[in-house]
Amino acid sequence: MRDRKSACVGRPTWLAVLLGTVAGMALSLGSSGAWAADCPGNPNALGTSRVLVVDPREHPRLGAMQYKETLPLRDHEVVITFDDGPLPKYSNQVLQILADQCVKATFFTIGRQAKADPEGVRKLAAAGHTIGTHSQNHPLSMNRMTLEQVQPEVDQGIAWTKAALTDPSALSPFFRVPGLLRGDAVESYAASLGLQVWSADFLADDWRSISGAKVHELAMKRLEARGKGILLLHDIQARTVAALPKILADLKAKNYRIVHVVAATPDRPATPTEPEDWLVHRPSDETPVAHWPAITPADLAGADTRARAALDDFGNLDVPPTASRTLPKPAWPRPLVKQRLATAPALPAPSAELFTWPPVAPLSARRHQVVRVEGQAATKPASRPVRLAALRRR
Ligand SMILES: [Zn+2]
I need a surface site. Which of 51, 62, 232, 253 has the fewest CB within 10 A? Predict the structure, then answer.
């Protein structure tokens, strides 16, 4: 039987409920732990803190590693991206690890992989992740490709990823160049399609032959050096699968927050941002930056309607306008130098002896004084013989 006191604790009053709710809301705004409440089965999940809606046409290229703009993230905000999938063996594990933490990421799929594993693409969409593309065959030569070569790689990558999706509109207009080997042709073609080209802010080298522990170490070290940013990983690597749970745990422990990026649509406007929020090297308050609106032709036309200055406006000057065109010659320095030379006292000429150096013995003779040369008696034997060969070496 429960006593009166415990019954009271077990049945909180409406005021206690209200206070608890307010406290919970405050907590949710102040730390990443808030979104854990929305993660079924994992009250301590990292979660996803917010959705950032971006307009590719306003910001066609991003990523601090290669471009002057990157995502307008706040301090301690992280966007996780995965390239080169889907590959069921590892992509499914990555999806499960992200699901356990209720983390939303961005996947850049390869068309050839989507063709081989269309279900893998549908799993990305079903889990609510953002899907972009990463070419058809992942050529590591896009920096040298012509427009004609780039075009089918980009187009087929999109076509096969779309074909794998139940709803093709689930594909975002995001593109990542294979190997980050950017080039003018691929960038201009992507821009013509309205694609946003994503580089990255930092890597974890998970395509190299390193351990999962090293991938985790690099990811965290590079993130902490920047304080925020876009992390590039690969969902086709065992080492990435090994590193990912620890990376997410560390993000949670160090109060980093996950941001989910989606593309703007007619029904979903871009998140309001300032142009400078996108700059990789954001100017400080100490840097002079022009904030005035640009001068337009209309402004100039308006200025032209004012009366021009006439010569008569300067009629109150003492010098007549014609005389003012002939400027007087400056009195300095020629006359002044001539005058000083004329009045300068004559000093005695220096003796020629002042420029004569005392006689110096030839180098061979000087060396003879300190070097004991084999077969000859030294005129002044050196206390410690020096080898001639050593002196000559340069
Ligand atoms: Zn790749």
Answer: 253
